[in-house]
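Guanine nucleotide-binding protein-like 1, Sander lucioperca. C-alpha cells?
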Amino acid sequence: MPRKKPFSNKQKKKQLQVKREKKRGDTGSGPSSRNASVERGGERQSDTSDSETTDVRRINQQPFGREGRYDPNRFRLHFEKESKEEVEKRKKLAREKVLQPVSDKELEINISDIFPSEKGLGFPLRPPWSYEMTRENLLRKEEKMYRDYLDDMHSRNPTGSLSHFEHNLETWRQLWRVLEMSDVILLIVDIRHPVLQFPPALYHYITGDIQKQVILVLNKADLCPPPMVIAWKHYMASQFPHLQIVCFTSHPGQPYSTVLQKKRMRKKADWSHAGGPLDILKACQEITAGKVDLSSWEQKIKRDAVAEHLDGEQLDEGAETVLMEHQTDSAMEMSSPSHELYKDGVLTLGCIGFPNVGKSSVINSLVGRKVVSVSRTPGHTKYFQTYYLTPTVKLCDCPGLVFPSLVNKQLQILAGIYPVSQLQEPYSSVGYLCERTPFRSVLKLTHPSLMENKAHNRSQGSEELNWTAWDVCEAWAERRGYKTAKAARNDAYRAANSILRLAVDGRLCLCLKPPGYSCLKEHWENHPDLPEIIALQGRTAVDEGTGERDDDDEGESSTEPEEERDRDADDDEDGDDEDEGFGHPIRKEDKPSGFTVNMYNVLRENECE
Ligand SMILES: Nc1nc2c(ncn2[C@@H]2O[C@H](COP(=O)(O)OP(=O)(O)OP(=O)(O)O)[C@@H](O)[C@H]2O)c(=O)[nH]1
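C-alpha cells:
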C-alpha cells in the first residue's frame, strides 16, 4: 500500500477552502475573492500574507450561490488587495521615517486633488432596461456593464494609483435602487474632510442626469471648529451651486468623551438650541415648494423637542411607532424605470454617503429615536431599509459606498472608510495622523528610548527626540499596558489600532481645511454665522472652556483595572455603539478669537496617567 504523503495544516486549510468555495459555487474566483475582500460588518479579513498580489478581476467576481441564487454575504465591502511588498515597504518606512509636522497650508485640500476630472473617476450606472427584459437578462447586462466600467477605470489609472473603492456590484445596486426611488437625496459627508466623500460625478449625475435635488449634510459638526464648518460650507456651495447645504450633528451638546472611559455617555440629543432636523426640514420645504404636505414633520420636530425634556420613562411611553419596510432583495427588483415624483403625496428622502459618515445616525436623529443600528465599524449598514418618519415623509437608508478617488490611502483609513480592524499595516496611518496633530501633548507619550529608566530620564524630557510612527505606537502601548501574549513586549500593532480608532471617533481628531483657509482664517473666525454653528454643536462657553469633567459621566476611575480601562478605546466590535460620546477636537491654532475651547481636553490630564 502506498504510504500516505504528509499533509500540512496549511494544505489542509487550502483544501477545505477550495471545497467550501466549490460548494458555494464560487467558481473561477479561487481563494482570492475572499482574500481580497474586506467583509462588511467587521468580520475578519482573510490572511493575505501568503496569497498572490493584487488581482482586480478575481475580486470582482460576484458571489453566486448554488443554482444561481445570490450569496447572502453579497454586501461585503470589496476592496482591491495590496501586495505583500507594498505592505512591507510601508512597515519599514514607519520604523525609519522621522515624523515631521506638516504646515497648516498642507492641511488644505481641494476637491480636484481627490477627484481630478481628467481621471474619469465615475461610478457604475445601471444600464437602461425595460419591462420586456427578463430579470436574468438584466442581471447579466448589469454585470457586463460593471466589468466594462472597471476595465475602463483600470486602463486609465495604473494599479495602485487609486485609493480603496467598492468592488462589489451588489452594493452599487443598492445605490441605484435608492437613487431611483428617492425624490430628494440626502448626501451625507463628515465635516472633518467633506471633499473626500463628495464624488463630483455623483453630484452631476443626480442633479443633471436624473434631475433630482441634493441636500448636502455636513455631518459630525460637533467634531470640527465652528469657523472651519462655515468655511467648508461656503467652499462646497461655491463649487456645487445646485446643492442645499445643511450642517448637522447627531451628538449635539454632548460632553467631552474620555479616551479611557469604560462606558459611553448616554445623553439624549438636544436640538433645543438650533438647527439639526429643523434645518433638513427647511431645506425639504424649499425643494418641495408646497407639493408635499410636510406639516406632520414640522409637528413631529416640535413634539420631539418637548419630549427631550421628559425623563426616559415618559419618553418611552410616548414614543411613536415607526413603520419600517425591509428591502431585503430590492436591489434586484424591477420597479418602474421612470420615477413619479412625490408619489402618493409622500416625500422619499434617500440617505447616501460613504461608510461611517453617520447616515444611520442622521436617520435616528430625524426619527427621534434609534431605529437603525450604528457602528463605528465602516460597512455596518448592509442593505437599505425604509422608514416612515411621518405619513408623508419616508426615509431610505443605504449601505456606505466608497467611490474611486485619488485620496491618500492613509488618510482614507483615518477618515473611517476602511475598517481599522482589517488593516494589514496600521503604522503608516499613525504616522500620517501624527504629522498632522499635536499627538505628543494629547497622548502624553514618553519616547521609547527614555523608557528604560523612566525616573532618571523623565527629567531629560523627550521634546528634542525624533519620533517615528513605530515609536508613537510603542510609547502608546507602554502607556496603555498593551503587551504581546508570548514575549510580553509592547504590542505596537494593538497600540496602532487603538490610535487609529481614536482618530476615526474624533477623539484624536484630524480636520482638513478648505483651500485658502489659512489666508482667510480671521474672516472665518469672525463670521456672523459662528453663533449658529456653536448653538448647533449645543455647547456653551462653560462646557467648552472649563475642562471640567461632566458629572454624569460613567467614566473610569483611576482605580479601575487596566484591562477594563482599555476596552473602550481599543475594541472595534461590530456592535451597536449608539451611546458613544465624542471629544471636541479643536486644534489650538484654529481657535477663534472670543471662542473658548480647550482642544486638548479631548484627552484629559488624568486620562493618560
Ligand atoms: N461625533 C459624532 N459622531 C457621530 C455622529 N454621527 C455618527 N457618529 C458616529 O460615527 C460612527 C458611524 O455612524 P453610523 O451612523 O453607523 O454611520 P453610517 O454612515 O450609517 O455607517 P455605515 O453603516 O458604515 O454606512 C458611529 O460611531 C457614530 O456614533 C455625529 O454627528 N458626531
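Residues 419-526+545-602 form one domain.
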